[in-house]
Every structure is written in C-alpha cells, then in structure tokens.
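Q: For a teaching session next week I want to show students how multiple molecules come together into a single three-dimensional assembly. I've collected the sequence lines for a complex. Could you give me the predicted structure tokens for the whole thing so I can convert them for display?
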Amino acid sequence: MKTPGEIISQMYDNDAFSLWLGIERLAEKAGYCHLKMVVRQEMTNGFGIAHGGITYSLADSALAFASNSHGQQAMSIETSISHTRPVKAGDELWAEAIELNKSRRLAIYEVKVTNQDKHTVALFKGTVFRTEKDW
Amino acid sequence: MKTPGEIISQMYDNDAFSLWLGIERLAEKAGYCHLKMVVRQEMTNGFGIAHGGITYSLADSALAFASNSHGQQAMSIETSISHTRPVKAGDELWAEAIELNKSRRLAIYEVKVTNQDKHTVALFKGTVFRTEKDW
Amino acid sequence: MKTPGEIISQMYDNDAFSLWLGIERLAEKAGYCHLKMVVRQEMTNGFGIAHGGITYSLADSALAFASNSHGQQAMSIETSISHTRPVKAGDELWAEAIELNKSRRLAIYEVKVTNQDKHTVALFKGTVFRTEKDW
Amino acid sequence: MKTPGEIISQMYDNDAFSLWLGIERLAEKAGYCHLKMVVRQEMTNGFGIAHGGITYSLADSALAFASNSHGQQAMSIETSISHTRPVKAGDELWAEAIELNKSRRLAIYEVKVTNQDKHTVALFKGTVFRTEKDW
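A: Of course. Below is the structure for the complete assembly, covering every listed component.
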C-alpha cells in the first residue's frame, strides 16, 4: 500500500495546473496536507487583487491531496469558499487542509488559507466521495 | 452612469487571470452574463482532467461580471460549487450567470457551467455584498 | 416497484416533524415535489420572524421527498440555504424541489421557497447520496 | 452597552421555536455560544431519525446568539450544514458556535454539533451581515 507522500507525489507530479500555480508541498500525512504558493501578477483580476479562482484552486488542491492520501481515490462532491480578505500579487499563501469527518464513503475537510501576516484570507470546506478504487 | 457592457469591459480588460484562462464574453446585461472558454492541457490535474479551480474560476468571473454590472461595486461573500462531470483538455465550457435574488446590500447568483455536449459539468452559487462605491 | 407517490406517502406518514410543521403535499413526481405550509407563532424567533430552521426544515423535507422518489433510498450529504426575506407568523410558504443533476450515486436539488406574495424567501441547495437500498 | 448574556437572554426569552426545541444555554461570550438540547420523538422523520431541520435549527440558534452577542444586530446571509451521523429520539445534542472571521460588515461562524458519545453529528457554517442597529 502506498504512503500518503507517495500518493500525493504521484498526483502532484502530474498536476499541471498546481505546478502552474507554483504550489509547494510543506507537510502531509493521512487526511492532512499543508501547501504554499506565491501570488503572481498574472493571477490578478480587474480589481487588482488575486482572482477568487486562485485561492480556490490552492484550497482545492489541498482538498484533493488530503482526501486521496488515505489510499482510496476520492472525488470532490461539493466545495464552498468565503474570501475574507483581499490578496495581492506578491502575497504568500499557506493552505492547511484538516479532516473534519470521515466515513466509509464520504469525508469532509476544512482548508484555511492564510497570508504572510498570518491573516486568514479564505475559508474553504469540501466534501468528497471515497471510491473503491485504490491508488 | 456606465452600461453593463462598459463596466464589464473595464473589469475584463484588466483581469489578467480571466485573460490567461482565455475567457470570451458572449452576452451580458444587468445582472447577467454568458462566458465561454476552452480547456487547455496546462489546466489539468493529476487525474488528467481539468483542475476544479478552472471551472470555479470561470464561474467566479461570471459572478463578478454579472454582479458588478448594475453599476455598484460588488464583492463575493460566499460561493459554492459542485463538480458534476469530469472536464477534459479540449473541452469547451459555457458559463451562464443568472440573478436569483437582489436586495440593497446583497445579491445571489447561480452559474451553470456546461460543455460542448450541453452536459452540465458544474453548478455554482455565489452571494455578493453590494458596496456603495459606483463604477 | 413503488411509485413516487407511494414512496413519499410512506415517508410523510411517518415523518412526525413534517406533520408538526403542518406540511401539505401539493404535487410530486420522480425527482420533484411541491409542498406548502403555514407559519405559526410557535415557529418564530427572538426577532419576531420565522426561525431560520423553519424554512430550512420545509426545504429539507422537499429535498428528502424529491430525492427518494426515484425508488432508491437517498441520504442528505450537504445542504445550504440563503434566507432572502423575513417570514412572519401567518405567512404561507411554498417549497418546490427541482432536480439539477443526477448520477448513479449522487444527485443535486434546488428548492425555492416562496410566500403568498410570490416573493422568494429562501434559496436552498442540497446534495444527496443515493444508496443501493430500495424503497 | 449590553453584555453578550443580556443580548442573548433578550433573544432567547422571545424565541418561541428555540424554546419549543428545548434549547438550554450552557455558556456564552462575545462571538461564542454553547447550547444543548434533547431530541424528542416529535422531531423525527420518516426514517425514524431526527429530521435534518432539528440539528440545523439548533445550529442556527447558536449562530444567531453568537453573532448578535457583539452588540450589533446580525442577520444570517448564507448557511450550510452537513449531517454526518444519524440522530435518534433521546439523543442529547451539544452545539458550539465559534467565530472564524469578523469584519465590520460580515462575520463567519462554525458550529459543530455533537452527541452524548462526543461524536460529531453535524458540521454547520454560517455567514452573517452585521447591521448598524444596536441591541
């Protein structure tokens, strides 16, 4: 059986969009992961701040890595995000995914995204369906 | 007072990330917009399908354009998305934002994302705060 | 195989809380149902308006009836609601559940709750897990 | 200026539905509250378990008390709940509301609902709009 690190490596190495975002892996274990990225100018929107899709994407990668790390393939069912503070080009973002609940078929994760000043910039919740397919 | 088209042009022309996504504007009016994009290889994840952040970003741009088009600046408060069908590189995505409710301070939008086969690939709901700042 | 009406009757007749709410069944078919209730004084909160749990409960019953009516038992995974307008004692509420998406294991419903003036008072979205257990 | 306890007392004493639910107040401070209730037979649904509206209502009362306790009237904008484990008649439910984020106009709370065995039965998230009206 693969370890969380082996599974996440296999996902991450083939995840073109997470690589485009410049996501780095800081820590991981079964049901948990901690990621980092730096916001670039090309990630901003018409208000001059990071597009909402950037923090969502970072949090969604954290959800995918944390929820697949148990060894069974997991698919996102429903996710929600609140953007609590503007993010600018140059900001560093940290995303920490924590498992709130896990049953045989379903699991729920919370991902908190913070910036270099330790301020929360987004709160994300995601529910996944745990398939019977192994990694 | 600016028209919906003028406001959305001003937002879109400065929205580096929406331009990176290759978003095209198909139609727009107050409280409504219709967008299109084509998924590229660099937008996929470790499962070989579009990263969840891609459909979210398209829907979130639709939310931003539709909710700002009334003339008052609007900020996303909370958004949720369900990914109902996998999206592949080469797929065409259409996002249509519809206003479900609008009061003085708040408004709620639904964005349906469909593919070239008219299948729904994502269902998005977004709530915005309507500031007193005019465009 | 049971009809939607037979399944919903079996659920409704044993649903003590829906009966306490005074929910009436107006129409139903596979993946759809339309309910009605009248708000009573004992359903209000400290603001003198209906407790948020009342419109949620009505919408959640609509979700349960609509999602189980296909013949397979369905369980709520995640639901969200926006309360868009205050509801008072004496108000009549209508809830219409519509199926937005259905796959083998999952289905998504939207429930719109309106009052006697045809105003939307709440927008509800619910995702269910479709078990293999038949009604 | 009123204390959190005074504000919540004023809300609770007039909250007919929270009283019907049998909600007890265990602890409260600015931005926080802890409630308890016992599930009764009349709160169950056609599956013989507590109607989803019961745990939602408990969590929504916790949201209302916690978010109003700062002294400004707060109104629910959007709430979501995941029912993670069935609840039966006779079960004791505890709801703890914690403030995740607060700005001038908006605040976000998480409410975890647990049973007598310390198992999580529901995870709730709520966003409120903070009006300028004082208690």
